[in-house]
Specification:
This protein is mainly β. It has a single domain, classed as Outer membrane protein transport protein (OMPP1/FadL/TodX) (Porin), CATH 2.40.160. Helix content is 3%, strand content 51%. The chain contains 2 helices and 23 strands. It has a 14-stranded antiparallel beta barrel with strand order 2-4-5-6-7-8-9-13-14-17-18-19-20-23. The chain has a 3-stranded mixed sheet with strand order 1-12-10, with no helix packed on it. Strands 3-22-21 form a 3-stranded antiparallel sheet, with no helix packed on it. Strand 6 and strand 7 form a beta hairpin. It is elongated. The termini are far apart. The relative contact order is 0.22.
């Protein structure tokens, strides 16, 4: 038996975050710009126009035409996220307690591998392996929001083959395929009314495929613009609920309705987006970079789930996400032939109501502040480091539910303690063959 997301008798939380190579998702929604490359130090400024290493295979495939010979970029990254929930006792059901669940994010690894190969001076192919979608969160099992989420992981890992062609001395075009392996896992507490809580777990792994188009136009050797379009990717998760510690009453209802072993279908859409970037050299030392972008998070889908033991029928809810806008500005300073420094600032608009943040997705509008450096060791090798701080702004929660004493999830109110945000630490190695 299969049931739709609206009929679910499962606790699901497309809860959303976690990415292989990048950490807390707050790029604009749950997509990240941070993949272990020099873009971290620029706070994503000039993301589609920089094209200075093989990471352009992922950020704008058309940029490969600027790379000589074969080039390899390796990016490594670690992030530390802070998301501590403070319970508002005046708005939270007393039976839920006062525990905020601890830091829901903590440390998370990331990175990427990028390779560009020259078939001819005008024709390039490449590949990228990285992750820039999702995040992973985990609260203490007995925290006040346990009936809404205890643990949730959503990871998108992408394999991206790409091709680029230089049409003339100014215009280059590129395209790539994004084959994304999506992994989903969520755990949520079940209110048994009497005795200890039960738990519901859902997990699944699926493939989704999308496409990317890129354009790079070079007005002169020191000025260029980049434009990319990334299509949506559909991840059709479906899982059989795994129940544990569920009371006899609820078990009987689940068996009678056929929901105890029903497959839960919950599709999710990684949104389409457009990004335009600028790179302009003022002189031999200074270059300015900028970006503007848009992502269609209004198509993301249903992500808020829970179960009332006295009414195990309807669980999912579409939270009406908003499309997001992105703007970034940065600069590079070449202090010498060997050393270059960079910095940037970026802003992504909110994709949900900042006064009604679900604990499964403690993310919204984001400010980024980046700084980094590159060191040229030879014509064939350079390396770099980057730091970035992502400020998450105000994240407030006020969710209502049926009374806990009759099997409901209760009311949950509070906010994430400030400063809520993420620190990225990244390093990259770049080889030319």
């Amino acid at each position: 038996m299969k049931i739709s997301g609206y009929q679910l008798a499962a606790v699901f939380s497309t809860a959303t975050f976690a990415v292989l190579a990048t950490g807390t998702a707050q790029a604009g929604g749950l997509l990240l710009y941070e993949i272990g490359t020099a873009d971290v130090g620029l706070a994503s400024a000039g993301y589609t126009a920089r094209a200075q290493d093989a990471a352009t295979v992922f950020t704008n495939p058309a940029g490969m035409t600027r790379l000589e010979g074969d080039q390899l970029t390796l990016g490594a990254q670690a992030l530390y996220g802070r998301a501590n929930f403070g319970v508002d006792q005046s708005g939270t059901s007393p039976a839920l307690g006062t525990s905020g669940g601890g830091n829901a994010i903590g440390w998370f690894p990331g990175g990427g591998l990028f390779y560009s190969h020259s078939i001819s001076p005008d024709l390039k192919v490449g590949m990228a392996l990285t992750g820039n979608f999702g995040l992973s969160i985990k609260y203490d099992n007995n925290w006040a929001g346990r009936y809404r989420t205890q643990e949730s992981t959503l990871i998108g890992i992408s394999f991206v083959p790409a091709v680029a062609y230089r049409v003339n001395d100014k215009l280059s075009l590129g395209a790539s395929i994004n084959a994304m392996r999506g992994s989903f896992k969520t755990k949520v507490g079940v209110n048994n009314i009497i005795g200890s809580d039960g738990q519901l777990q859902l997990d699944d792994n699926v493939w989704g495929v999308g496409g990317n188009l890129g354009l790079l136009y070079e007005f002169d050797p020191g000025t260029r613009v980049g434009l990319t379009y990334n299509s949506q990717i559909k991840l059709d998760f479906a899982a059989q609920p795994k129940w544990s510690g569920v009371g006899r009453g609820l078990s009987a209802v689940l068996r009678a309705t056929g929901l105890q072993s029903a497959n839960v279908d919950l599709g999710m859409t990684v949104p389409q987006g457009v990004n335009a970037g600028l790179y302009h050299e003022i002189d031999s030392k200074w270059a300015l970079l900028g970006s503007v972008g848009w992502q269609q998070w209004s198509r993301f889908g249903e992500v808020d789930v829970g179960i009332d033991s006295n009414n195990p029928i309807s669980v999912t809810a579409n939270r009406n996400y908003k499309d997001t806008w992105h703007v970034a500005a940065g600069a590079q300073f070449r202090a010498s032939e060997r050393y270059m420094f960079m910095g940037g600032i970026a802003y992504d608009s909110e994709f949900q109501d900042s006064n009604n943040i679900p604990p499964a997705i403690p993310a919204n509008a984001a400010w980024r502040f980046g700084f980094g450096g590159q060191v040229t060791e030879s014509k064939a090798f350079n390396w770099g480091w980057s730091l970035e701080y992502l400020y998450a702004g105000d994240l407030n929660t006020k969710l209502s539910g049926r009374p806990v004493v009759i099997g409901g999830r209760g009311n949950l109110a509070g906010s994430y303690e400030q400063p809520a945000g993420i620190l990225f630490l990244a390093a990259n190695l770049n080889y030319k063959f």
